[in-house]
Amino acid sequence: MSDADILSLLVFALCLAGSMFFSGSETAITSYGDRRARRAKEEGGREGNLLGWWVDEPVSVLSTILLGNNITNTLMGATATALAIRHLEKTPWGSWAVPVAVVVTTGLLLIFGEIVPKALGKLYTHRATIPVLAILKALSRVTRPLVWILAKITDAVISRAAASTEGSGTARVTSGELGYLVKVAEREGTIPAEQAQLLQQVFRFEDKIVRDIMVPLDRVVGVDMGWDIEKIKRVAHATGHSRLPVYHGDLDNIRGILHIKQIVGIELGEAATESSRFEMFERLLRSPFFVSESLLIHDLLRRFKEQRVHLAIVVDDGGDTVGVVTLEDVIEQIVGQIFDETDRAPLFAPLDSGVQYLDGQASLHTVSEALNVDFEDIDGVDSVGDLLTRMAGQMPIAGSVFVWEGIRFKILAADATRIIRVSVERVELEDDYDEG
User: Fold this and answer.
1) Would you list the DSSP string of 360-375?
2) pLDDT tens digits, one per residue of 72-101
3) CB-hemisphere CA count at 13 Å for 290?
4) What is the DSSP string of 216-284?
5) CB count, 10 Å around CB of 283?
6) Residue range(s) of every CATH 3.30.465.10 domain in the chain
7) How confident is the model at residue 234 (pLDDT cuts 50, 70, 90)?
8) What backbone torsions phi and psi does residue 386 show, to the nearest 5 degrees?
9) Where is the CBS domain (predicted)?
10) What are phi and psi of 325, to 5 degrees?
């Protein structure tokens, strides 16, 4: 092997190492969190100065990297071609010298000049960024004229491209792309997890329909026009709802919406007869607002604003009532569960006395995990309400108390079809009792 061959191989190896350095540098720097880089810049020092260069002049940094990468790759290809021609031109394989050089160079660049260094750059982002920025800044002083020209050309092209898309009327970024950017920003710590979740819920908002968020008919609490005022007040107090649908006979025949505040001052004697009760409802009820279950919820929000109502009756394509939906249900799709002073307590709300509130529809699995109690698998029993109904042998009434595995359940609110609210507390086994 001649001295020329040794020199060519040395140049080839140095170029490959340079390609690895520049490719890995690009990945390491671009993977460095923007928020962390800005914070380091504010703190100052050597690290802050280097990261400040990246924050303030990203085009210059990238131009230095790409210039170095292209120079090393081009020189590497030329060296490999010269070596191949020198050793193959006088052989039967002489015509294959250039293709062989291209294949070998491309393979080595793909593996050692792209895949491996980029993977390492991603893996050691925070450890590698400062050293490579220091080297790149030194190189940028040597290549400043070329880097300056490249940066100016890049800025001009970007400005022209941005100007050409303004006012075009086309959406440059989709909600899916924004959602991806939010995920990346959350992962890098640019925005807090709570804000990221809020933004993701906004992006998902446009795809949901009323059926996705409504309260199904079998869980709707309503009042019959034949009920007396005191019973209606008890139901309103137990549920905490400020508005209730009013039906005649069953929930498929909803006549209107009753605002509970309208009956606060009405005494039982004012509606003692059925006819007077009907007259009272006719006077107090507000016309029901019906919406289709397939309506998009952002359209539902607009209709709530237009109609100035907070509750809608949901119907299917055949016009049958399938549930209700409220303005609060819509807003909760963005901000999450909302509780106010009239809402029922959350699924588990511990009191100072050790008592907790449960929703009657809470699943046994959820309750068993929260209370550390192993409920048996019972066919047809999925919720706390189902369990208490099975224990009672019929639909229990408010005030009933049951004990199961050292847990005392007391029914606080129930209607003719379901258990609405339950309190629970641990008791000593000798105090266990069961009363319906």
Assistant:
1) TT-BHHHHHHHHT---
2) 999 998 998 888 888 777 777 777 888 888
3) 14
4) EGGG---EETTS-HHHHHHHHHHH--SEEEEEESEEEEEEEEEEGGGGTT--GGGG-SHHHHHHHHHHH
5) 8
6) 349-431
7) confident
8) -60, -45
9) 284-341
10) -145, 145
Q: Tell me the pTM.
A: 0.41
Angle, alpha carbons 243-249-253 (nearest 5°): 65
The answer to whether residues 173 and 94 touch, using CB atoms and an 8 Å cutoff, is no
- How far, in Å, CA of 39 to CA of 292, rounded? 51
Name the strand (E) or helix (H) holding 312: strand 311-315
Residue 244 to residue 151: CA distance in whole angstroms: 66
The closest of 262, 249, 200 to 222, measured between CA atoms, is: 249
Q: Which residue has the tokens 């880089």?
A: 37
Taking the C-alpha atoms of residue 328 and residue 295, their distance in angstroms, rounded to an integer, is 16
pLDDT reported for residue 353: 44
Work out the angle between the directed axes of helices 34-43 and 45-56 (0-180°, nearest 10).
Answer: 130
CATH 3.10.580.10 residue ranges for the chain = 210-335
Contacts of 381 (CB under 8 A, 6+ apart): 364, 387, 390
Q: What is the residue type of 200?
A: Q
Beta strands in 63-109 (DSSP E): none
What's the Cα-to-Cα distance from 87 to each of 98, 105, 214, rounded to whole Å?
11, 16, 78
Contact 25, 140 (CB under 8 A): no
- Which token pair is 45? 């020092």
**CA atoms of 242 and 297, how far apart (whole Å):** 22
Residue 72, both tokens: 């090393």
pLDDT, tens only, 306-319: 988 889 999 988 88
Please say whether the beta carbons of 409 and 422 come within 8 A. yes
Sheet holding 290-292, edge to edge: 215-216, 321-326, 311-315, 290-292
Q: Which of 337, 350, 324, 77 is nearest to 217 (CA)?
A: 324
The shares of helix, strand and coil residues in the chain, as percent rounded to the nearest 5, are 60, 15, 25
Distance CA 190, CA 127 (A): 19
Q: Which CATH superfamily is domain 210-335 in?
A: CBS-domain (3.10.580.10)
